[in-house]
Inverse folding.
């Protein structure tokens, strides 16, 4: 029987801690039967701060009666040495990877503090911020001024997941994603919105089950025709028919996260990213 | 002298590849003198697909005359075995971490495919999507209907970075971040916007250098009073004075990424995240 007792996991970093967390989440997700209490400790860059970490790790060990797990991305070896005084199971990113990489590349690492330090000046970062602004300006068909600049235009019925997906594509990948709703008028005319016809090769559809769509829409407008299950079913059927006829690829969003949807879209349209 | 020749880095995953990329970026950032060509290969979950990876790795090695680096998060050991036929420098996440974790936890990992699989049903994921919708509904002071529900309300002059930061806080951390502009009328009255007074403890300010603000505003409205350097300087001075007087903590956004700004805000306000 897997244990259901709680074990603390500390994400310790001298920077934002985002790398340690991302790494840690992907590892812990492999052990769904265990129960973890996650504690984020970013900006641990002095002896005082790391001693505070050690104290908290000891307290967690004492109260849970099991040694905590520590996922760390610290680079300062003096701080690491203090941290190691705690009795914990250590997963140290730099320890395991940086040293071998230095040997392979034949050069020393800068041991810079944290992943994002200095990134705000990079071209990649600026492209991501520009893409976020683009996604906001071209959300829900509110502007078609610069659709020609888009890398992809997401289409689908209202509340099928277009907005968060377009924001994620922008934020994570610097992809300029517009989104455009398919509405009952389009289905009556049985045609793509006129603004989109010339950009057909940029279109990518999202679809969703009628049950889930109805649930989401009810949260927004309870007891409405808009949210009624039969109406949702009709809209989705019509949207899928339209997308098939127009040769627009589409993906089911119901049980997928925006990360999965975005990665799949990116993979399929093979947008070539430059720089960074 | 560090080499400036190009070396390919492959991010290979049976899922979205986002974990492999995040991990890889943080490692490569330690070697700014090296030039890397990054290739993303997600959804590598069949023998055919991994053989295609091997072929591309060999081609890169031949054309660059150096063995590529492979950052992988594959869990299927048969697929890993095929990948290992390529001559590359392997950084394998699961190899280095999953096996030791299994020993520590006394249980087998599920070897699920990818980090995000099944996440769409989790409470954490739903909270993140809800937070994104909240950030969009409460962007730029456009609604104050549910400000009481916010975890934080970002304030600052127009174009100081509030919108992308609030979206990042939502997307990465599930934090409900509203944002509200400080405008010339507020400075003339020398008072906080009336809507915000009752939420003073939730306020967090962003500031920026006048030079950078003027640059950003010129992109939006060239040759305007709005973008003029002296006007930007006056607005920023007045905003900082107002924030200091009201006891609102604030952070300089000029040379920081939204990841850094968000992590710092989160750290300082110590929002307690639950679940996941």
């Amino acid at each position: 029987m897997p244990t259901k007792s709680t074990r603390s996991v500390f994400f310790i970093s001298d920077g934002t801690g985002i790398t340690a967390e991302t790494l840690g989440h992907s590892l812990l997700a492999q052990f769904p039967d265990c129960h973890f209490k996650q504690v984020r400790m970013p900006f641990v860059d002095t002896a005082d701060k790391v001693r505070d970490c050690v104290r908290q790790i000891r307290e967690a060990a004492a109260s849970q009666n099991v040694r905590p797990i520590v996922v760390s991305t610290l680079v300062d070896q003096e701080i690491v040495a203090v941290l190691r005084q705690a009795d914990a199971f250590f997963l140290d990113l730099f320890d395991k990877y940086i040293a071998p990489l230095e040997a392979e590349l034949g050069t020393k690492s800068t041991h810079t503090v944290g992943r994002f330090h200095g990134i705000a000046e990079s071209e990649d970062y600026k492209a991501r911020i520009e893409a976020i602004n683009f996604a906001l300006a071209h959300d829900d068909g509110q502007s078609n001024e610069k659709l020609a600049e888009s890398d992809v235009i997401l289409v689908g019925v209202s509340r099928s997941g277009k907005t968060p997906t377009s924001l994620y594509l922008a934020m994570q990948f610097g992809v300029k994603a517009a989104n455009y709703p398919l509405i009952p008028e389009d289905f009556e005319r049985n045609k793509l919105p006129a603004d989109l016809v010339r950009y057909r090769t940029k279109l990518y559809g999202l679809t969703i089950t009628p049950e889930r769509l109805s649930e989401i829409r009810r949260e927004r407008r309870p007891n409405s025709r808009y949210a009624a299950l039969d109406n949702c079913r009709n809209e989705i059927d019509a949207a899928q028919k339209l997308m098939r006829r127009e040769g627009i690829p589409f993906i089911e969003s119901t049980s997928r996260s925006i990360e999965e949807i975005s990665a799949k879209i990116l993979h399929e349209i093979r947008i070539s990213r430059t720089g960074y």
